[in-house]
Amino acid sequence: MAENKTQPTDVDPAEFIAQLEHPTRRADAETLLAMMTRVTGCEAKMWGSSIVGFGKYRYRYESGREGEFLLTGFAARKSNMVVYVMPGYEDLGDDLAELGKHRLGKSCLYINKLADIDLDVLERIVSDGVATMRRHHEILEG
């Protein structure tokens, strides 16, 4: 069975963040690093070349495909910050309404800059997502 393309690496997340060219993106990444470390209780690890991840879980699909991926994390992309909330956003209507300016993907929350959102609401969304993952999946780290 094929492995995920995105795997943990030995790159130091703090060093990766320090190298971000855009000052707002760098400051936002530092804020997310601190918040997600506190919320998850997990050490940050780089996943692939640009995702800062926290924890690890095992997934199994009905198709038989299985693998391991981060519990939560973020990526500082050129155009926006991406926050990964692995269970998705289906039950988060009230929190999303309070969050501020954002866009959604399946498990991705796109934010232009943290100044556009309520950080307390984001922390609650991340915390709830991690709690859901811990209830429903085999947790390997975190």
Protein model, in words:
The chain has a six-stranded antiparallel β-sheet with strand order 1-2-5-6-8-7. A three-stranded antiparallel β-sheet has the order 4-3-9, with helices on one face. The protein has helices at 13-18, 23-40, 93-99, 119-136; strands at residues 44-47, 51-54, 56-60, 66-69, 72-76, 81-85, 103-104, 108-111, 138-141. It has 142 residues and is α+β, with helices and mostly antiparallel strands. It is built from four helices and nine strands. The chain has one domain (13-141): Alpha-Beta Complex (Aspartate Aminotransferase, domain 1). The protein starts with 12 loop residues before the first helix and ends with a strand.
What's the SSE blueprint?
Layout (H helix, E strand, L loop, with lengths): L12 H6 L4 H18 L3 E4 L3 E4 L1 E5 L5 E4 L2 E5 L4 E5 L7 H7 L3 E2 L3 E4 L7 H18 L1 E4 L1
Antiparallel strand pairs: 1-2, 2-5, 3-4, 3-9, 5-6, 6-8, 7-8
Helix pairs in contact: 2-4, 3-4
